[in-house]
Amino acid sequence: MANTREPILQPVPILSLRPTQMTVGMHEVKEKRKRVREYLKAHSKKKQGVFLGRHMIPVVLGRDKQHYVIDHHHLARALHDEGVENAIVSVVADLTMVEPDAFWGVMDNKRWVYPYDAKGERRPFKDLPPSIAGLKDDPFRSLAGDLRRAGGFAKDTTPFSEFLWADFLRRKISRKSVEADFNKAIKEALALAKGRDAIYLPGWCGPASDD
User: Taking the complete model, does pTM exceed 0.90, yes or no?
Assistant: First the structure.
């Protein structure tokens, strides 16, 4: 296994990266695209390389020598959508010795894959998109991301914590209302996040009691 404290760094084509989730929040991707665009326009090629070096994509190296993204899918998609061809990856684990029929089981056991679609339903691993370009929009993932930034819940180390919040919100708010008025949906999500129905979720920071 690669030492995660001394990651292997290398540039790879963004479209060669293999996602380990099926969706992203496109609202969040658009915000990241805006920041990436502003930075790239304002800095030289050399400084652009520094930017990519500071925003490395953590990956697992598979038996097929492909790079499986385990975090920062939104950034990878934003870079791709802005026309950036290569990204700097940090190889945090080497699974090249794992047999192909066991690979996804190992990834699942380590919580490095989240094969749930835009409806929050689990899908077979074979349904994962082959590239970053194939990630689908889940507006509830965007809602969860903005909810955290608005103070609705605390940043947590639990894998896929924002997806857990997205699934919670999916059961409480209609997709139509999120797409129709995102800011209104955030206000509703903030109220829901403080309730005791959300107490089981990672980073919950609601009141101690409803009394």
Answer: no
